[in-house]
Specification:
about 270 residues, alpha/beta, TIM Barrel, 8-stranded parallel barrel, about 50% helix
Length: about 270
């Protein structure tokens, strides 16, 4: 079916899982999980992944092709873009959703830059997410423990017109253990005050029961990356450890893709179905 926006998926789901693509196998596994559960999801490509591959177009175009061939609604999203040029490139390539990350800017500059992205995105029918209130991790750019205030969330959304707002409520990027503790009351307060979907970043470090509670409290988009990459990598390690003679990457990538698919199926059934 044709690509859809994140907003379109949220019209019929209480939340949407947003999963980061690093390799082609990631995208294939994620879309397969979506089709197995009959649940829409968001394929994300981060600015860091773009830098790893050297450019946006090759993997980005592949994601669009895979998503367009899916039997379920899929959005293709640019994640954590600090470059306005990259945002423009993603929009022109056909991404249906972008996230501009101006969290390292002061409030006024973040508002100004985000507003420009919103204006550009809305002119092409693209859903725009932005961030206010720093989320932990990311090499010190986001200070652990910082939380988004209700006042800042309301002010920022009103000034920019963003379609989705990433809030800092206790999670942290790149966590490999589930040790985060979410401020569910703060989520409820912001959700009641802001008229757009709230986004939770750093969900890999959040216990599953808290993710369920976060959705009930008002989170509508849940980003997961590190946990899934851990599953993908551990599967490869196990295959190679069992047979050191393997040289054909398809033999271990097939297993890692299957494990990744199962992991995402589990999350979709838990949170969004």
């Amino acid at each position: 079916m044709p690509l859809v926006s994140t907003a379109k998926i949220l019209e019929s789901q209480k939340c949407v899982l947003a999963v980061n693509v690093v390799t082609l196998e990631h995208a294939e596994a994620f879309v397969s999980a979506s089709e197995i559960t009959g649940t829409g999801l968001v394929l994300q490509l981060s600015e860091n992944a773009v830098k790893y591959h050297g450019s946006l177009a090759p993997l980005g175009a592949a994601m669009i092709q895979i998503a367009s061939a899916a039997e379920t609604p899929i959005a293709v999203h640019l994640d954590h873009a600090t470059s306005r040029q990259l945002v423009t490139e993603a929009i022109n390539l056909g991404f249906t959703s972008v996230m501009f990350d101006g969290s390292n800017l002061d409030f006024e500059q973040n508002v100004s830059e985000t507003l420009a992205v919103v204006t550009e995105g809305h002119a092409k029918g693209v859903w725009v997410e932005a961030e206010i209130g720093e989320i932990g991790g990311k090499d010190g750019v986001h200070a652990p423990g910082v939380k988004t205030s209700v006042e800042d969330a309301v002010s920022f959304q009103k000034a920019t017109g963003v379609d989705g707002l990433a809030v800092a409520v206790g999670s942290s990027h790149a966590m490999v253990e589930k040790q985060a503790s979410l401020d569910l009351t703060r989520i409820q307060e912001i959700a009641a005050a802001v008229p757009v979907p709230l986004v939770l970043h750093g969900s890999s470090g959040v216990p599953r029961e808290q993710l369920v509670a976060a959705v009930e409290a008002g989170i509508r988009k849940i980003n997961i990356s590190t946990e899934l990459n851990k599953t993908f990598t551990e599967a490869i390690r196990e295959v190679l450890a069992a047979d050191e003679a393997i040289v054909d990457p398809r033999k271990y990538l097939k297993v890692s893709k299957s494990q990744l698919e199962a992991h995402v199926v589990d999350y979709l059934l838990l949170l969004c179905s």
